[in-house]
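Homework help board

Subject: predicted structure for assignment chain

Our instructor gave us this sequence and asked us to write out the predicted structure in token form, then describe one feature. I got the tokens but I'm not sure how to describe them. Can anyone check?
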Amino acid sequence: MKRMLKEILSTSVYLLVVLCLTYVVIHFIGQRTQVIGSSMETTLSDNDNLIVDKITYRFNDPKRFDIVVFPFQYAKETFYIKRIIGLPGETVYIDEGGVIYIDGEALEEHYGKEVILDAGRAKEPVTLGENEYFVMGDNRNNSSDSRDPAVGNVSRDDIIGRAWIRIWPLKDLGILKHQ
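My token output:
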């Protein structure tokens, strides 16, 4: 009887430790998320499964071209994944030819391969606050991003983390390139 109680207690403690570690990992270190839609094509595809790094931004600020995850403000349990284009304090503008300008200088980037057809809010200069980021999907003409007033500028406090590793599909398994 004493041995049985000891086994039950030992198993209970083991399960409690596993549950606590799982909680810490999910809430503070990383979490799995799934890409829904094509807004990040060709970098990320519909149904890709990723691990989001939730630690890096506790110690460092997000950088231009980082792929970040943040909640959509108008739908519960809906998260967006986009690339940072504009940093705090910068002014973002997209001209009629689809060229992105940061503080008056054309942005050199190779993520959005198509000509931007709709500049949205950025057809007029958008100046970011000290804690705001301008984000866009890589599939520029099929992305709801900072150009859309429903998304707007993304606050630093809303960024959950950066996309880190693609875990599914297995053929594409690996660490994601941001820069």
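Reply (TA_rk): Your tokens look well-formed. For the description, you could write something like this. The radius of gyration is 20 Å. That's the kind of observation they're looking for.
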